[in-house]
Amino acid sequence: GTGALVVEDTVPGGPGEDKGLEVGDVLVKIGGEFVTNFVTLEETLDDNVSTTLEVVVERGGEEVNLRIAPGNLHDVTPSRLLEACGGVVHALSYQQARNFQLPVGSVYVAEPGYVLGLAGVSKHAIITSLNNVPTPDLDAFARAYASLREGSRVRLQYFVHAERHRTKTGLLHFNSRWYPPAAFYDRSWRTGRWERTLLSIPGGTNDEPEAKKRRKAGDSREGDEEGDDEGDAPADVPVVEAGSTSGSNGTRAEGVARAVEPSLCIVQVDIATVALADGVYSRSFEGSGAVIHHDPNTGLGLVVVDRNTVPIASCDILVSFAAFPCEIGGKVEYLHPTHNFAVVSYDAGALPRRAKESIRPIAFAPNDDSLEATHSALPVCRGDEVVLVGLSAQLRPMARVSAVTDATSSAAIPSADIPRFRAVNEEVITLDMDFGYNFGGVLTDFEARMVALWASYAKPVNGEVRDMVRGLPVAPVVDARDEVLRWRREGKRGTGSVRLLDAEFDVLQLAKASDHGVPNEWVERLMRADPVRRQALTVASVVADTGASQSLKGGDVVLAAGGEPVVSFRGVERAVSMCATEQPLLLSVLRKGEVVDVTCELSEESCAGTGRLLHWAGAQLQPTHRPVAELGFRPTDPSTGAHLDVFISRWYHGSPAQRYGLYALNWVASVNGIPTPTLDSFIDATRSLDDGAFVRLKLISLNARPKVLTVKLDLHYWPTWELRRTTDGTNEWERVLL
User: Fold this and answer.
1) According to the UniProt entry, where is the signal peptide (predicted)?
2) 3-class secondary structure for 16-36?
3) Is beta strand 397-410 parallel, antiparallel or unpaired with respect to 26-30?
4) What is the DSSP string of 632-701?
5) Which domains does the chain carry?
6) Which band of pLDDT confidence, cut at 50, 70 and 90, is reported for residue 250?
């Protein structure tokens, strides 16, 4: 030989280190035989697993004799993992222990998933304790995890190998409703399959009724006493009169900020991977909201927030208030299908007493822009001064006085590559100066009355999402609040809808209207109807399979709606609201150089958002959401004429869907030749299929291209299940295994 073998590394807690082997030792003999190459070394170790061997090494010129029993590689290779809320945890393997210089068997996070991810735990982290219980191995972690109760918040300690000497602390919010119960997967050495065994919960899961109610509401208090005061503000909560308009801008802004502060909040939204519906582009959002209703007696509180913060219904919401340091869970009550705002509810009766008294709904500035008004009126005009008020990440109010540069500009949000919600037919307010970064708030007058929601918009630019903030006039927000309160009084929670004219409009300046063939008399009528905007509306696109798609054509210039000249998006909405139920809307449009009258059927669009997600073979299927139909195409089944409503919105890595090319942005037209226009028909067509069966699917893409492919089912790892909103009025979500 030309050299010797030298100990380069040892694994903490391994047989070599435990028996005295040190880095730098020169290997001489094993079992009485000289060992100078790796082949001989490996053969000797393989032939003597768990058998004590005499090992001779040279250390610093001296011969050292050791007795070492080689370990079994299978014993330090994970054959068991714990799957919990989309995350995977297992014992640290020998290979990773050698890389990280850590003992084999530590609790290793292979994939954080939803709950661990929200606690800040990253991939490759080592968890050392959960709920103040040490977790040296997987079994200890499983026992601590099994003892957690739904809705509880506990401390979690961990470290990452790059900073192994710094222990980090996170707060784990145990929320398991989106995922199956935690379970062990054990590898069968005979079949190679990983068999699933539910994680047992010691001591049962019975909770105290009142505590369970508080946990569902998102309140972690152990108890609270009702106060004796009725509506009186606490002594340390300032009540400020904001009506003074004298003094500097800084002084005026500060007064308004202090008056508005009890109505502001921060809304945090987290979405489980299995609940990413409607093409949403992220799993976490955060933005400013404003309390628009607060009644501890009925237990109802409402917050308005933009849809770049609450994009879909299947999400977890946490509301943090500026009025008093507390936070509570929220639920989506209202998602406007075309305007950039949502209404979130919270249990006002579950808040601490001081919070109940401190939080106040924001006042709205009076305006004549309600849907029942007959003429257009703007809450603010160009040149008006307003106060922009928002919250910092530390829940401290920020405010400044700004001037309105344009109160009638169009949001003009283009379609994204992956169809998702965007504001359509929306006029916004622009300011000369804002906070300098894209974070929301409210615009108020100097009486601390809200005139607009300073909302964040997701705008696609060159394949990326850019945030921009603009003022959304408050009129549709007031209408939505009143509708939600009415639905709650009538016990019709989650069933609301809005009437829409399903067309997207562009703005045409009146100066160019004549070039498009608009008669001069109509130009004058539109000018008299609104001297400020000086514009007309043209049809940019129509929503597929609606009355507008039958009556309107791209390029039509809309001159009148409901017999009245119309020049603004809000004017069209007003005409729609005044149209009798189940009656078409009369429109006067310029088409091919002639003014013609057309009748357009209106639609009822749900404000509840997508409430059903089907997971099949690793693909996520859902009803066709509105942003897809806004592209102008929706396929039909040629045999029945029914519109297809089984849309693939996501697929998951490692699944049969990925393996066989069952990708997103396709409709499923048939399964094994059986038409599947709805999710129910798809479930019926696939219910009897066995594990390992081959399934022939016909797909239709967004550009109407058909495709046929075959998928081999793997129901052991990828079962069929459904995530759906309950219909009992609680606005909860349930997971159903099919």
Assistant:
1) none
2) HHHCCCCCCCEEEEECCEECC
3) unpaired
4) T---B-TTT-PBP--EEEEE-TTSHHHHHT--SSEEEEEETTEE--SHHHHHHHHTTPPTT-EEEEEEEE
5) 5-71 (2.30.42.10), 74-198 (2.30.42.60), 252-490 (2.40.10.120), 497-605 (2.30.42.10), 610-737 (2.30.42.10)
6) low
